Structure prediction request, 291 residues.
Amino acid sequence: MSAREQGPPVRDADILASSGAQAAGEAAAAVRRLAARELPAPAAVIVLGSGLGGLAQRIDDAVRIPFHDVPGFPMATVAGHAGALILGRLAARPVLCLAGRFHIYEGHAPQVAAFPVRVAHALGARTLVVSNAAGGIRRTFTPGTLMRIEDHINLMMRHPLAGPVQPGEARFPDMSRPYDAALASLAHAVAREQGTRLEVGVYCALTGPTYETPAEVRMLERLGADAVGMSTVPEVLVARALGMRVLGISCITNAAAGYTGQPLSHDEVIESTREAAGRFEALVEGVVARL
Ligand code: HPA
Prediction:
């Protein structure tokens, strides 16, 4: 059994050694070898959230590299996550698609959750398009609503930049503009052209794996959150520390816990993304076309 098949590393020193800038450079070199072709700098790295993996089918000339073939990547475990890095062209632009991600609720460190973004950066990506499935805190959000993430609240209580400062990064990175204003305008222009409603709101990240209690949902509402999920923030924090531009899209899959009286289930989450996936894919493709 290889080290990667034994589950997440547990010692801080192991995690930091295997998920920093140097490890990302090594992983990027391995990806170049595995792709066995000339790789142009991606116009964007696109992270596909639960149930949103269909975008990968729109990628032309695709090379698919399973996550477990990339040094430093652990195995993806959650149903609905394909777990592969896909290189190819979307709307004729070179892209790198991360179909699946590593979550803190799986036992991964936040540094590991953000590691694929470091690898994308090492492969030349300077724009991150990140997506997720999220619960709707704002009362008017119904399943299938697409929300552009305007800002976020990190309630994961853990940070992907904890540890030694990586080369070229600041000890205390600015987070006054986590999401790029020009990409936001572009997303809204594309959404308008496509007749897609694109809401704007604040995403709050918790570690999970439990869904929230009704009291927690009331707390999040008072804190100013519009959507809640268990991902995205580690990737965005690292992307910003690396100076990347970020566009974030949440697909609201369910009313937050306690709003409807119904229990939440992962199957329901995946089912609701199916309906919104087409609009999400067209939106991201339209944005990438104009990067
Ligand atoms: N809470 C947290 N994460 C989620 C939810 C939710 O209601 N829906 C989809 N991901």
Remarks:
- Residues 133-135, 211-212, 228-230, 253-254, 256, 264, 269 surround hypoxanthine (CB under 6 Å).
- The chain has seven helices and nine strands.
